[in-house]
Write the structure tokens for this entry.
Amino acid sequence: MSRLPIRLRLALVFALAMALVLLAAGWLVYARVASDLDRALNQELRSRAQDLSALVLGHASLRAGGAPLVERGESFAELVGPDGRVVESTAPIGRTRLLSEGEVVRARRRAIFANRQSAPGLDEPARVLAVPIRRGGEQLVLVVGATRENVAETLRSLLAAFLVGGPIALLLASLGGFVLAGAALRPIEEMRRRAAAISSSSLDERLPAPPARDEVSRLAQTLNEMLARLEDGLLRERRFVADASHELRTPLALLKTELELALRQARSPDGLEAAIRSAAGETDRLSRIADDLLLLARAERGGLPLQPEPVDVVDVLETVAGRFRARAEAEARPLSVELDTPLVVIADRLRLEQALGNLVDNSLRYGAGRIVLGAAARNGSVELHVVDEGAGFPTPFLEHAFERFSRADGNRAAGGSGLGLAIVDTIARAHDGAAGATNRREQGADVWLSLPAR
């Protein structure tokens, strides 16, 4: 069953349901008609018994007076005396007693119905009604009956109609169910064909969505949203690979050039030392880019592994400031930590220092003037800020500041890889926080990462 097409399975289930419905409906109709026919036969016997009782009380003969009330071949009547013998009867039953001794006894007290497999002289199933009659001083029993052949014939005709019409109705309903299942599944088949034609080079295509707001339409909408996410992810990955290739190509080319020149030309020891220093610098740059790319790739695969612990924010800020203070002094850039209130966060200290180090490095590289590291508690979070007094970010760049390989000046030769702020954002998100950047009204840039407070 599970290997059959869905359309055929739906049609079979529909056919089975319709068969059960038709069977139940046929049984109910048959039972209702049989019950109505039984009640009609009982009512007919009661009416006939009343009429014949009036004749018997008037001392009329069942054969003569009851002829209009007794149809030959279909109904009959007899009168049973006080001694249990048949006093009078209609043709063709003769003097045959229709009731047993016990039934006669009960019939003298009240009216009773009884079924007979065969009425005498008729050879057909019959139903009789026995009613007590008191004529003069005698206790008589009047028995009226009628064959049940008409009832049986009507039920046989009804059953034959069901046996013929039922399969036809079931066949038509099954065909209708098969057609309806095909119509319901047609949009899904169109979606399947379109999906089979979509490849990595055509992710901009979308599945056809039916106009009706039903489950199939919602499925198409969900799949189209998934395709949009896949397209966006693939575009980002392609852009990431292209940018990474470009970033790696530049230091590799410089490294190769320095080494080739060192091999081809006779250089002095100072020249060789300069070439080796240049090559070592490019190697360090390659190593930093590779480390940054590995960190971002690890975060993409399933989250950045962290070792959270209670961290003193002042201690972290002082550690990062001490790491860059010599470089800041060499560039005549004051670097300080300003924090009035002690704050504690649950974080991975090494990753937190890495993120703050990227922010300070960006300020030294692209900013100007004084650099201030600070922190503040806001709305259940702790914000760690790095502020400078430079020109700030270009306004259009702010919404893309934390994207990979994004640069404010768009120049790849400026020295940075464009991954620093992306790593800050990745580390903040790994701590269930966020990163942000803005331009100060007075002058300079303010970049921060927000972490949940302890």
About this structure: The mean pLDDT is 82. The chain has eight helices and twelve strands. The chain has three domains: 7-152, 215-302, 309-452. Residues 351 and 427 are 7 Å apart (CA to CA).
